[in-house]
Amino acid sequence: MIAFHWKESLDIATIKEPKHFNCSEINFYDNFGRGISLLSVLFVLAYAILLVRFRRSIGAFEASLLPMLIGLICALLTIPIHELLHAVCVSKNSDVHIYRVKAGFMTWFSNPITKERYLVMLLAPVLSLGILPSICTFLIPETAPNLISFLLIFSLGNIGMAYGDLTNFIVAAIKVKHGNKVVPCKNGICQIQ
Length: 193
Known about the structure:
By secondary structure, this protein is an alpha+beta fold. Helices cover 53% and strands 19% of the residues.
């Protein structure tokens, strides 16, 4: 079941740690996590620069301010959709809540899910709202530069907003052992053996 808590705020400091057998915390905020976070930001910037340069080199990107501004606003308005895509990827057996937090919204689930499902959950929004629209800009004819500008900024905005998901993806892919399950906790996720 998916529950939306638009008016409630999730206070991470009051969260009780999960009481599962053989649970070990994987902290996303240690030095390794911060290093991966920096790499994620650099990847997003490099992707944006390379994509815009490539689009300009083939003459299909004209920097029109209005379509770019509308694309950025639309990207910001898709934050709830981004979290909903996370929620849809979580197991049917788990209660999924979308909370308002300082940085926007956050998806929280109650029951453990497999590492593979967790990784898919992290990538679903960035692939569907970021990478796929940026690929679609190559299918739009050069006679529609405003549409290309809109879609390009929309996709780059969504990729930029997903840098935390990319960081969590890399950390979880490296630190969570194959076959283990994960559940969220205060500083990241707890790995359940």
